[in-house]
Hints:
Largest sheet: none
Radius of gyration: 19 Å
Structural class: mainly alpha
Number of helices: 8
Number of domains: 1
Pfam families: DUF1361
Distance between the termini: 33 Å
InterPro entries: DUF1361
Keywords: Membrane, Transmembrane, Transmembrane helix
Mean pLDDT: 92
Number of strands: 0
Amino acid sequence: MPISSEALRRRLPLYFVLALSLGLSFVLIGGRVLLTGRLQFIFLLWNLFLAAIPFCLSAALTLAATPPRAFLLLLVGAAWLLFFPNAPYLVTDLFHLEPRQGVPYWYDLALILSCSWNGLMLAYASLLDMHALVQRRLGLWMGWVFVTAALLLSSFGIYLGRYLRFNSWDVLANPLTLFYDILNRLVNPLNHPRTWGVTMVFGVFLLIGYGTVRLLGRTHEEETR
């Protein structure tokens, strides 16, 4: 897929800042390993890698020199939706924060917050790209329907990952168990209040956050014209 040099030039500042932010997380994780001699939070590197996959997919579609065909857009979009929950999922890694010997509490707080921030920023940057692609093809209202559905499904994915310990690969590696657990919660919603509590609360939180990021960018552009 050929890349538009002009689109890449416009986005380089964003990519540079995201790279700096990710670099800070890498440094903090590496510093903790050196400080403690333990690999306790090394799993966050894997989580950051998974969070970057949907961003890379949406960036590839956005940077394409020619508009992607409908089939390719659907194919990449399906893969994007499958991996997208991995980005906001990083917020729930705050569950791992607790005082530990050998490392200051504030250091672990900064480390996990850095990773959580990167997860959110990768999620929102990726969603902005996909939102624009859908809106151009289907219109304003369908663009927001897509955003709302993506964030609610992502929040459901966060629940599946944090509480049932599924991940994106289980769609292929463990599809029957995954399908059964999802179907059970859809058929018997009252038996699973935590499922829908997590889905709705995180969904609303992510939607408000996305709207805030979008408005901040638009307001700044209008004020600097």
